[in-house]
Every structure is written in C-alpha cells, then in structure tokens.
C-alpha cells in the first residue's frame, strides 16, 4: 500500500511523537508514506472562521499536491479530516467556485480535480488495510489493557459529509482496532464527545472542564488509558490534563495515547521508540500492564 501522506501541522510541531510513531508503524505494516512536505495547514479554527475562501484554497492546494502523486491521501489528524472534508464538499459541489480557487493555484502549476480520496489513518486501517491483516502482525497482544476510545468530533459529525452512508460503522472503528490488538475497549460517557480544544482560547475553564470530565469518566470506568486519532484531542486531554484536574476538582493522571502508538505497542515497538516518554501524563501504568501480561 502506498499513500500520499499529510501529517498535519500539529504532529510535526506539538506532538512529534505522533509523527515519529506513524513512520515506524507504517514501515512495519508495509504502508509507504509519500509525505506531502510542502503542503499547508488545513485552516481549521482561526483561518476558516475569518476567511473561508482562504482555507478552501489552502486545502485545495494540498489536494492538488496529493493528486500529482497519483495516490489516495491519508492524514493522521481527525481535525484535518473534518476541515478538509468540509472544504472538499464545497469544492466538489460547485465547479465555478472550484475554477475560481484553481485560478489562484495556477501560479504554482497546481489544479484540484473533483473527487480526491482522503482518509484518516483509522479509516484506512480498517477499510483498506484490514483488521485481519493487522491481527496477523500483532506480536505483543495488549492483553489485560483496558483502553477507552476517544474519537474527537471531526471524524464523527456530520455523518453526511464524512462517508457514513457508505461506512456506517466508522464510529466503532476504534473499538474494533483495540480488540484486534488484544486489549479491552472500555465504554464511558465521553468517548464520542468534544474534547474542548476548539474553545480553549475563548473559554479556557469550559474547555478544561470538558477534558477533565471525559478523563474522569474513563477513570471511573476503570480505563488504563485513552487512545485518540486526533493530536488536538491529545493536546487537551494530555497536555492540559493537570490543569483540567484542578478545574474538575479531582485527581486524574490517565495516560493518553495516539492511535499509532497503541498499534505500535502491539507490533512490538518499545514505548520509548514510540515517544511515549514525551507525554505530559506519564505512561508508566500502561507499560507496567504490558510487562505483566508478557511475564504471565
């Protein structure tokens, strides 16, 4: 398998452990990543709120670069997935608007043609790579590890834009992957709710309250860790967790893993190789659980 790979801004800045673990996991899975290293921010948040046409132009530029490779596109950020899916919907629905955007792109010799395939790693792993094939590569089953899925908003809503007509089970893919890796998926209240990151600069207390409540719910459900396909969710649930604990008035301390890290553990990589030592909330409890499972 070979894909045009868009890692997004955050994985190469705030969460480099995600970028690094994705590279390791892709090689082990036999997925060749053709990185779109000149692509730009998806514009989610500030850019899109102030200038939607600019955001659409930025995403059309990335799409055009991906199309030049002749490959389907893959991302590792569900926020990028949501923003890019919204942009693609507008571009594909209106040829006049698409032509207008392409006039801007023509200065770089780029053109976006309607109909690019762009999937988050989670979707590609289940739909294109296949859970059976993934299962065959597991060398360290995550036995005894209780993992709470945390999807983030942008791969769940709106379903009409995100391919749920064709793939109605996309909101259960994390549980499927967790199970295939040998771990136990944990049901808890916040699994499919917003992490609070989109409002962190406007209302920090509300944002931290959301994050703290979700982490607390997972702890109450006896989760050992959460896993997310979104680095922005990771920032709010991991980086902000100490402050979130103060806002909700309880001890937290629950490790938050990126999806490629969880997959990488089952494929035999060591926690340090996957950058788990770079997290704010220490992942020692996860490592101890896995060490105990191997010893048993």
Structure explained in plain terms:
This protein is α/β, with parallel strands linked by helices and 296 residues long. The strands form two sheets. Strands 2-1-3-4 form a four-stranded parallel beta sheet, sandwiched between helices. A four-stranded parallel beta sheet has the order 6-5-7-8, with helices on both faces. Helix 4 crosses helix 5. The protein is globular. It starts with a strand and ends with a helix.
Helices and strands, with pairings:
Layout: E1 2-6, H1 8-12, H2 16-29, E2 32-35, H3 46-50, H4 52-69, E3 73-75, H5 78-93, H6 95-105, E4 118-120, H7 121-129, H8 131-135, E5 146-149, H9 173-180, E6 184-185, H10 204-220, E7 225-228, H11 231-239, H12 241-248, E8 256-258, H13 259-266, H14 284-295
Parallel strand pairs: 1-2, 1-3, 3-4, 5-6, 5-7, 7-8
Helix pairs in contact: 2-13, 4-5, 4-6, 7-9, 10-12
Radius of gyration: 19 Å
Q: Can you give the helix content as a percent range?
A: 40-55%
**Gap from first CA to last CA:** 36 Å
How many helices? 14
Keywords:
four-stranded parallel beta sheet, 296 residues, 9% strand, alpha/beta, 8 strands, single chain, 14 helices
Give a brief rundown of this model.
The chain has helices spanning 8-12, 16-29, 46-50, 52-69, 78-93, 95-105, 121-129, 131-135, 173-180, 204-220, 231-239, 241-248, 259-266, 284-295; strands spanning 2-6, 32-35, 73-75, 118-120, 146-149, 184-185, 225-228, 256-258. It is of the alpha/beta class and 296 residues long.
